[in-house]
Amino acid sequence: MEYTRTEIMPGVWLTHLHSDKFKTACMSLNMLAQLKRDTASMNALIPYVLRRGTVQYGDMEAISAKLDELYGAAIEPVVRRVGEIQCFGFYSSIPEEDFLPGKQDILRQTCALMAEMLIAPATRGGLFLPQYVDSEKEKMLQLLRGRINSKEAYSTFRCVEEMCCFEDFAVSAMGSESECENIHYKKLTRHYHDMLQSCPVEIFYCGRKSRREVVSAFTDALMPLPRADIDYDIGTDVRMNAVEEKPRYVEEELDVSQGKLVMGFRLGECMEEPDAAAIFVFNAVYGSGSTSKLFMNVREKLSLCYYASSAVNIQKGIMLVASGIEFPNFCKARDEILAQLDAVKRGEITDDELNAAKAGVASDLRSLMDSQGELEGFYLSRALNGEDYSPADFAGLIEEVTKEQVIEIANSIECDMIYFLKGEEEDNENAEP
User: Fold this and answer.
1) pTM of the full structure
2) 196 vs 428: CA distance, rounded Å
3) For 193-255, what is the HEC assignment?
4) How do residues 197-243 score in pLDDT, each as one tens digit?
């Protein structure tokens, strides 16, 4: 796969990945903004309102009809965060023209439709249509209110929210329920125009078309895009150390039959010049995968939990360990999770553990090459991190990580937050602040 990244317009960057491997091409168009509590829900709502209709195609039925003409091309809203950068826009998949009858420039027509959805939405008097905004706002509110239905995801979210309560990372990609409730169509229209002028834009393409063809299609389609003072001052604030000397403790009660223990860690001084490969291998040794210490010891050997795994967010410099436990096992599970981290710090890592960890991470990275959606997410993160390597390149770096590098990462890490979700009126004498 041939990879290039270039600025095709002021503040508009294109990542082009040439590949003959797939029968469809994929594209994404992302507006980038600093993740903030008072604007996150408005940013997240914008692409959902935009896809409701354009000047030329006034409603979703008309847009769907146009996509059908393009042999089933798809354009969907997408909202996510990378560190403390909020990314919102559209993701599209289109059939490759090599497999279609005749010659139709599907790429150019899809780019034009995507750009029209972004730049020329359906309005009345220059304002978003109230019924479109209210409808999409209600759907978002249902999504935000429904987070509590998945206790595993909810407990992880709550741990991050408490751990990063003084940081923008506490805000979810979709914002908050209270902020969403206060969105008004006039306010959202003003904010949309501000974002359109000031947000940097990241475009991704993976398919058979040449870079020249893709650049031409997007520059023509985005020609009317207003550009004013582009806000390049966006990024992620990395806190190196724990907020307090001892880990903070938050306990919450809900109607659950299984306790959820989530522990938040700061990656520490290793984030001054982060070695991404070493951090990912450490995570695999410690808690990610079926050969990790958390799985083999806390879950299998000691049977202290139903599941236990770790995940790192290298943009923010944090690691979360999530586990499902019986309520009385809180202290034992907490202490053993910390004990396994201490074991890595002491260098108690066998060759089999290290090799299995490196092989697992490298295999996962190489498997990204089989999914355009995974490739899109990988290259978006790399672009925002200022990194320039492919999944295969990164896999090669993974395989070179040494035991000493893993130990160094482990010794940089500090526990910052312990969150415990337990059952209502559960008398858990083992729980300690």
Assistant:
1) 0.93
2) 52
3) HHHHHHCCEEEEEEECCCHHHHHHHHHHHCCCCCCCCCCCCCCCCCCCCCCCCCCEEEEEEEC
4) 999 999 999 999 999 999 999 999 999 999 888 999 999 999 999 99
